């Protein structure tokens, strides 16, 4: 293992790293990948400084979708840059559909933190926490997440009014209103996913509705597309947006 600077928050499980017998083989580590993706797609490359992600080449067999619970993509990138935890995702998609890549696809960054204390999953999965980060590609959608209704208006956790609202038939993590992922985001995400699935040989699994809750396939490191809540009971992203589910089923 490469010498790496571990942030406090990750020391606990990084130190206990074990040899994982189910680690995907390394044959799909991309070579000219970053270049080919960049030139064939409209992706803005704004790589984080090299000490802000883990400079270790790993194979990838799954894609994990997130939302930032925040403002613009740039504000999230600025946050990642000032953090010493090497947190972030490979890609972030702004509300206008702009895709920014901040980590090379050969390398990895902490985006799941499965070992979180509040995460109610079996301990054996928590013990191999960083394995999930190493072998997955993370994509963030810039979005505020859960909203609270007050006098017919909708507010995010910063008490700022949000206009684009999706109402869920069934609540998700105790909320029925979320900031809607924009059509531009969904469209850009589709193009990006198709490209990544093709290059890495990642399939789209049959039961896509099941990725919005703890998912056994995700925890067993089976190839596929998942969300942060496929691995964490204490997260909100992504919520089961109708437009997102429909797009994923079309892949
Ligand atoms: Zn997340």
Describe this structure in words.
The chain is of the alpha/beta class. It has a single domain, classed as Lysozyme-like, CATH 3.40.80. The chain is built from 8 helices and 10 strands. The protein has a 6-stranded mixed β-sheet. A hairpin with a 5-residue loop joins strand 3 (91-93) and strand 4. The longest helix is centred in the C-terminal third of the chain and has 18 residues, at 183-200. It binds zinc ion. The site of zinc ion (ZN) has 4 residues, from loops. Zinc ion binds at residues 66, 228, 235, 237.
Compact overview of the structure:
The chain is an alpha/beta fold and 251 residues long. It has helices at 8-14, 33-40, 73-82, 123-127, 129-134, 183-200, 216-219, 242-249; strands at residues 43-45, 62-67, 91-93, 99-101, 136-141, 148-150, 153-155, 165-172, 175-179, 224-227. Strand 6 and strand 7 (153-155) form a beta hairpin.
List keywords for this structure.
251 residues; alpha/beta; Lysozyme-like; six-stranded mixed sheet; two-stranded antiparallel sheet; 8 helices; 26% helix; 18% strand; disordered N terminus; binds zinc ion
Overall shape: globular
CATH-derived architecture: 3-Layer(aba) Sandwich
Number of helices: 8
- Overall domain count: 1
Mean pLDDT: 87
Helicity level, as a percent range? 25-40%
Query: What is the H/E string?
Result: HHEEHEEHHEEEEEHHEH
Cα(first) to Cα(last) distance is: 36 Å
In this structure, how is the largest beta sheet organized? 6 strands, mixed
Which CATH top level class fits?
Alpha Beta
What binds here, in terms of ligands, is: zinc ion
CATH topology-level fold name: Lysozyme-like
The assigned structural class equals: alpha/beta
Q: Would you identify the regions where 5 or more consecutive residues have pLDDT less than 50?
A: 1-24
Count the strands? 10
> How large a portion of the residues is in β-strands, by DSSP E?
15-25%
Radius of gyration: 17 Å
CATH homologous superfamily title: Peptidoglycan recognition protein-like
Strands ordered across the widest β-sheet? 1-4-3-5-2-10
